[in-house]
Amino acid sequence: MARMRxxxxxxxxxxxxxxxxxxxxxxxxxxxxxxxxxxxxxxFERLAAEWGPRAKPLVGDLTAVDLGLADEAVAELxxxxxxxxxxxxYDITAARPSSGRPTWTAPAR
Length: 109
Ligand SMILES: NC(=O)c1ccc[n+]([C@@H]2O[C@H](COP(=O)([O-])OP(=O)(O)OC[C@H]3O[C@@H](n4cnc5c(N)ncnc54)[C@H](OP(=O)(O)O)[C@@H]3O)[C@@H](O)[C@H]2O)c1
Prior knowledge:
This protein is of the alpha/beta class.
């Protein structure tokens, strides 16, 4: 069966981790690549212990040029069917431009 390939940003977050779980639960052919900052890989690994091998880390950062993705990672990722953008700097006490702008504009890149 052909794999349906997803990229989910913010997959280690409150909303995103539920999105990843839902995708994996509802379709056996789904493979989810979670954009994860290098410093959050341990968090990803804890979640992946429940998600299983169909959840894969895609090391990057929404604020970096080209999302900080290595060429090898892009090559391994290949064609993507769906992108679900859940990442955010979610701090209601921070000023709007400094708190969210890099992650709001990331999908356009
Ligand atoms: N929580 C709610 O009740 C709620 C309700 C409605 C809407 N929303 C919206 O849903 C979105 C996510 O909220 P949340 O509550 O899930 O936030 P959260 O728990 O703080 O999660 C934020 C996610 O974004 C990732 N992230 C932040 N900066 C990043 C960067 N530069 N590069 C890559 N990943 C980055 C975080 O990764 P790390 O693990 O590396 O930190 C984390 O996975 C927000 O837009 C929020 O407004 C939330």
